[in-house]
Amino acid sequence: MVLDPPLPKPLVGRLTVIGLGLIGSSILRAALARRLADEVVAYDHFEPVRSRVEALGIADRVAATPEEAVTGADVVILCVPVGAMGAVGEDIGPHVAPGAIISDVGSVKASVAKALAGQIPDYAHVIPAHPVAGTEYSGPDAGFATLFQNRWCILTPPEGADEGAVDLLEEIWAAMGANVERMSAERHDLVLAITSHVPHLIAYNIVGTAADLETVTQSEVIKYSAGGFRDFTRIAASDPTMWRDVFLNNREAVIEVLGRFTEDLFALQRAIRWEQGDALFELFTRTRAIRRSIIEQGQETAAPDFGRAHD
Amino acid sequence: MVLDPPLPKPLVGRLTVIGLGLIGSSILRAALARRLADEVVAYDHFEPVRSRVEALGIADRVAATPEEAVTGADVVILCVPVGAMGAVGEDIGPHVAPGAIISDVGSVKASVAKALAGQIPDYAHVIPAHPVAGTEYSGPDAGFATLFQNRWCILTPPEGADEGAVDLLEEIWAAMGANVERMSAERHDLVLAITSHVPHLIAYNIVGTAADLETVTQSEVIKYSAGGFRDFTRIAASDPTMWRDVFLNNREAVIEVLGRFTEDLFALQRAIRWEQGDALFELFTRTRAIRRSIIEQGQETAAPDFGRAHD
Question: Strand, coil or helix: what is B287?
Fold first, then answer.
């Protein structure tokens, strides 16, 4: 897969990415590949990560401080764990330029909007965003330029947000290959609770349950994991700090959806106990249709076993 | 990936496969490719499936009846849903040859052993087996010869089983690329409850919960499924009949493991409610190690996102 060629004219003068993990480093790569800005600037609070990005050559310039990173930037994208947004906002707030767009990629939106609103001066535009994309790997080496291709990026502009600024942020994401949607932060947090947060929680949980069983050894769990269990271990290998923050910052929606999940699971357990085969068959048939739709809409591969090699 | 070349000398005279779906048709393909028997015979109770296998040319002979299929067979492998084993056993019982090995590939073993024991005469050897392998696709077109490569196949010979017969069955599976392990049917059913059955149930359940939520539309679930949800839809697209039978036939172990899963999930939910970030972080870190082991032991790919194409 090759990205489209660089834009004939960059969309902005200076684009700054703060936090250079999987997502941040993917934005850098996509921004350079498509030349979205005259200058693409990178910063991470962790020095080895800055050095690594320097060595990878995926930014025009690696800044040494948050101040240096955001000074003169037209667009700043924060790619740090949701729980760190307030602190980063505090670091950069005094240095952002009037009219600059301050955005992020956090998986929770209402709490990020709140954390940044207190730190970014009114003369800049805070427009939270969330590209629904990723892999189970972390760090600057894990990123790649096509990560956002045909994935959805959700913008959650606050009420009264500057339309021009929202449009420009949308153009940037579209240029990185994403489909862009707008909704309220609250709606985002509810929708993502079911499509991402609760699935991650369940995956972490089943992997933990399997590890803790006294009646089945860990070696057995590993050997026979191809029976289905291994599918869950992928998202349960995602970044622990990021996911801790997601759950702490989207508590209400996660607990609400989890309540529904558990209720449904108890009903299913009861159907097994009472040998209600028809009820099981009906559910198991219905769920096939949903995967089919996901494949048809390009959000999943139709290859058997996700396209895993069978060798 | 290419299979090893055909054996210099087939292991048995006649190998019969009954039930020609994903697993059955994969056995046919592997058995022909490696020439495990002088003659590989196929039968399915559904006529269009027999015709399709005939057209695919993946058996030396497609039999028209169960009687014709098993007459003179040295080894018979039943690849039908677990709930159908008793009926198939009844059909073939009177026709199996003295000394023949009757095996299967069902995902539950104690109930299969019981169902077959009543139907297969004592002069044949009933040796249940379970290759822990598969994809989410079904039917004779979905099979492939390398499906069992480096996957585990569990034999659950009953007490007092003929050692020569068990060894021969082990050779057959090893020749199809599988690693073979032996254990009791009861232990198998407990181990598979955690590595396969409960993961499938949870996957079916979360997909059902997502479909039924009134507050989030199905179209939103599909659009943003790359946030994690889509991973669950793969195994929730597996064959409904097969899985209904698994749950009905492994009730006790499934309900027991499910009890542990739910208990752990409630603890996790409580940790979120009370904002116990350290507890979340600790679990989320621990689960990474398990995936690493699964990859190291060749039961999973290390490629990001299962190796899905990013385009």
Answer: helix
Name the residue with tokens 């490629």.
B303
Instruction: Please tell me which residue of chain B has the smallest CA distance to A200.
Output: B228
Share of chain B above pLDDT 70, in %: 99
Say yes or no: do domains B12-183 and B187-275 share a fold: no
Whether residue B231 and residue A203 make contact (CB cut-off 8 A), yes or no, is yes
In CATH, what is the architecture of A187-275?
Orthogonal Bundle (1.10)
The ranges assigned to domains in chain A are 12-183, 187-275
> A231, B229: Cβ pair inside 8 Å?
no
Ranges A27-41, B13-27, B91-105, B208-222: which has the least confidence: B208-222
- Provide the pLDDT for residue B3: 80
Least Cα separation, residue A175 to chain B (angstroms):
14
Is some CB atom of chain A closer than 8 A to the CB atom of B214?
A: no
Does B301 contact A288 at a Cβ distance shorter than 8 Å?
no
Instruction: With CB atoms and an 8 Å threshold, state whether B220 touches A305.
Output: no
Burial A15-47 (b: 16+ CB within 10 A, else e): bbbbbbbbbbbbbbbbbbbbbbbebbbbbbbee
Q: Between A221, A237, A247, which is nearest B280 by CB?
A: A247
Q: Is 3.40.50.720 the CATH number for A12-183?
A: yes
pLDDT band per the 50, 70, 90 thresholds, residue A1: low
CB proximity B287 to A under 8 Å: yes
| pLDDT of B117 higher than 70 | yes
Query: Which of the four pLDDT bands, split at 50, 70 and 90, describes residue A8?
Result: very high
